[in-house]
Structures are given as structure tokens and as C-alpha cells.
Amino acid sequence: MTRxxxxxxxxxxxxxxxxxxxxxxxxxxxxxNVQMLWQSYSEDPIIGAIVPPEKTGFNAxxxxxxNQGGFSAGMRYESYLSAVLGFPGRFKGSGIxxxxxxxxxxxxxxxxxxxxFYEQFGSGIVLRSYEERALGIDNALDGVRLILRPVNGIExxxxxxxxxxxxxxxxxxxxxxxxxxxxxxxxxxxLESKGGLDWDTKIMLGGSFVSKFQSGGxxxxxxxxxxxxxxxxxxxxxxxxxxxxWSAGIEYAGKINDPNAxxxxxYRNGQALLFNLGYTQRGLxxxxxxxxxxxxxxxxxxxxxxxxxxxxxxxxxxQQHTYNLAATLYPYATVISGESSASAEIFYSIPKGTRLGxxxxxxxxxxxxxxxxxxxxxxxxxxxxxxxxxxxSWGFGPSKFxxxxxxxxxxxxxxxxxxxxxxxxxxxNTLATPVTTTFKGIVYADIHVLETQVKTRKRQSLRxxxxxxxxDQDKGDWGTVLAEYTWxxxxxxxxxxxxxxxxxxxxxxxxxxxxxxxxxxGPHRLSIGYGKRREGIFCIGGVCRAVPAxxxxxxxxxxxx
Length: 561
Description:
By secondary structure, the protein is mainly beta.
């Protein structure tokens, strides 16, 4: 805690010295939030749950933010005693994991940050610094960021820093240095500021350059001794346009040779091309997307894997599901070595008062997504050792990664009852995304989900989910039942049971039963649960982490002020 108060004192000093001339001398405001997660563990050989030496896990953090005029400063105090299973086990101890001071000129022309910050350029394909606490991901930059808006419609960002890698009672950064520059031109805002016409069509252009420095060395490949580059550069160009209900965007990215652990230390250059097209009007929405990503893994340390030190983010093109069986059994994560993918989605609302729409209207949606490996030819001899392969086109290669088709219909029948039905058809290659150890190949699965919500009394409701997954591969058929009762605005209780009723091994047909109760009081939320959690994969935005099986209590508390 001593470091916490010392840092708070330093922030106050920065505020007084560097920003003492703020025109707004009114008293500032303090905001923040806290979250705590505690789990206990019991041994359960049937589901593979183990008990760590500590027998419990505890994750906690608290944000404290001070604002006055254009100045703000904040810190995040973190505690892992020890980290909850499934999070990085090397996270340990208590201390400050994030701190910053920022000044934003009231005119909006200058925005300056020192310390930690998050940032994204375009789609994130060359730079995305972000936190996803549920996945244990935090690659915050630690350094300096300057944002300039010299005229309305032009924005320039420049940053210099290192990335968060670890936490051991303090923030620990990785060995590499990240340098980046981004520029965006909003032509409509620029013309308006110059007295031009207000176009119906909105156009934005952007460009980014990101480089990283890491001390070099050599790597041996058979009889070759190859020099590792120290400075790696990546760049992107993008254009986005909107007119009435239409929107379109395209982004191209490139990266020079970057031998690293993800690509087997090959020296081939990287490329990416992303495209999206959308149309919306009242009651109708259509979107099309396509993506090819080739060797775009970009980290500030060439030797790490998984979640550590990613400079960029490869956007997922498949739909991110929320229902239990679709989201946890076969969730698709972007294949970092490269893929070609495409998706199409349509939404339509049948007007209320019609025969098909009913009294309150009916909503329909359909989505299809496909991803394959790249269209490549493996190189032979020395070229193969150094460059790996040659890409033949931007199109699909022969290796199927995933096919995901789903349709959904939702309808409100009365003031007290509404329902939603979703059907999924999946073809999932477990060799591309290894979410299971029991089957290698393509899983073919159908999933049915019926969700209902009934208002039983004033300010009380019951929500249920009935899910079933049918497949002849892997562990066979699954079923999930969920019931959640809410006494608004404070109390809730829920129970969920996931059952592998089609497992070929009768001893593995286990009920994963979990129940929870909780209370919500304004910004404060407390929940207490107990039961079994299945070993599996948890994904957000196409990024996934493994979650071990567990059996025990869980207490979760969050609050904001």
C-alpha cells in the first residue's frame, strides 16, 4: 500500500506543477470502481478439477480517477493472492498495475498522456492496446502519447512506449519498444471548417505506421545462421465512407520480415486486407465482410506466444456467440498464422400489427461465416527454411477452418411473455483451433436454443434457456438448461446445468450444475455461487483462453462511485 500512496502523492505533485495554470480552478472530481473475485476449489476427479496449494484464488482491482478541467490522472491497484485458475499464474502480489496523467486542451487541439494508456489505430490490425479482464489480457502501453488536432477534421497521434507483460506486486513491461504514428482526415469536418459544402457522403482517410525495437541476435536453421532484425515496421492505409444508409470500409496492412515464435522464425513479409460493406434502413440491416491475413503476428518480444505482448489485433469475422453451448464448446478464434474468411449477416423486423409480425412485431436474423487457410505453395530447400511458403492469391485455400450458419427469430407475444429461438449449424476444425483434446478433425454440429422470459408478477420475471447440441464427433451430444429469476430492482437467483448426455463414455456423462444468488443496489453488485465448471475455452472477440475445470464457491463483488 505504501507504493499506492506514494504514487497518489506524485500525481498530486504533477497536477500542481505541470497543470497549475488551468483556467478552470474549480474543485476537481474523483471517480472510480472496484471489482473482487474469490473462488474456492474442491477436488473432483470425474471432471478433472484439481486443488491448487492455496485452495483458493483471489483477483481484485480498483481504479481511482481524478478530473479537474482538462487534467485527469488515475491509477489501478491490483491484487492476485493467488490468481484465479485460468488467469496467468505468474500474476501475483498486490501493487499498482496502471497509472497515468493526462491533459486535454479545452480547445481539443492538444491531448497529452504520460504513463499507461490504451490505443487503437483503425481496425487494430497494426496497433491495438487494450484490456480484456475476463481473458486476463492487458497489453497497456507505458510511455508517452500525443494527439494533435491542428484543424477541425485532421487528427494526428504519436506514441512511444513499452508494453505490459507481467505483474509481480508491480507493473512489469516487456523488452521491446513500440513507436507509432497515425493520421486521420475527416473530409466533411475539414470542408465545413473551411466554409465548404456539407456533403451527404462522409469520407474518412487514415494511415498508420508502427515499429518495434528489440535487441537482435542470431538463429540457427539447419546449416544456416540467420541474423534477427532489430527494427520491425508495419503500416496500414484505410478509407471509410458513409452515405445515407450505406457504409463501406477497406484497410490494407503490410509488415516487413519479422521472424518470431508464431511463424517459426521465417523471414517472409506480412500482409492483410479487410473489407466491409453495410446497409441499414428502418427494419432492415445487411452487412458483408471479407478478410485475408497472412503472417501478421506482431509482438514487442519475438519469443513469446499466446496472449503475451501483442502489438496488434486480428479482428474476428465469425459471429461471437453468447449462448452457453455455442460460445464454450466450439468457439472460433482467429488463426494467427493466417486465414481467408468472409461473412454475411441480415436483420429484418416484421412490422407490428401484421399477420406475421403480431401485435408487437417479430425480429429475424441470419448469419453465415466461413474461414479457410491461405492459398499457398510450400517453398523447398533454403527458400523454404527462410521464407516458408508463397501465397498464390488473396482467396481461400483448401484447408477448412470453420463454417458457421445461424438463424434467429424473436417475438413478444404479450406484455408478460416473449421468446427467442436460435439455430446453429457448425463445421469446426479442431486442428485449426484446438478447443478439445479428444478429437482431431472437423466436428459437424447442430445447436438449438429456446429462450423465454415471463413476467410473473410486478417487477418479477423468470428467464429460461433450453439448449441442445447434436454431433456424432468429439464428446457427442450436450444439453444445457438455465433458469434465472429476478426480483427487480435488487435480487436475482439463477441455476444452470450443462450435461454431456451423448458422451460415448457413460462415466463422463456428468451434470455440471452451478447455482448463484445475488443483489444489485445501484452501482453495487454482489453474487455468490457454487457448483461445477466444465473445462473448456472462453472467448471474447475472437480471442480465447483455456479455462480449467473447477468445483467450489465463487464470490463476485463490483462497485463504482
